[in-house]
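Example 3.2
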Amino acid sequence: MNGWTLAATVTLGAGMGVALWGVATGPLRRRVVAQNLSTALACPVLLLLSEGYDRPSYVDLALVLALLGPVGTLVFARLLADELAADPPRARGLTGAAAGLGATVVVALCVSTGPSRAMAKLLFVGALLIGGNLVASRALSGGFREVPRD
């Protein structure tokens, strides 16, 4: 076990434990935030495992998850808009923590990788991960005022 796999194990154990607890218990607002958190945590874990096991294909999985995870959260936000309007989720701390973790992992992997196409791919995954998490969290916490609701 090297440092990358150890970091992935710690992140997966601590973060997913919290996310699973949030999904399994509590009100609706906690469950949708935990669902968003689980996708935001799984992506950095895949990036760490790609470096730890020297498997570049895991970066492709992280890319797909960084793209589709926030889309799933936006679908939940749209479908549950009426229920969430009465008691909107507040996830600023978790959103900041997940974005910080994603940024830290991407920067560490970029330093390890060095200038190459792989680094450009890592930066793209990081931008999708952080941007998607921020947009999905904003949609959960009350949505965007410019978008009309039916």
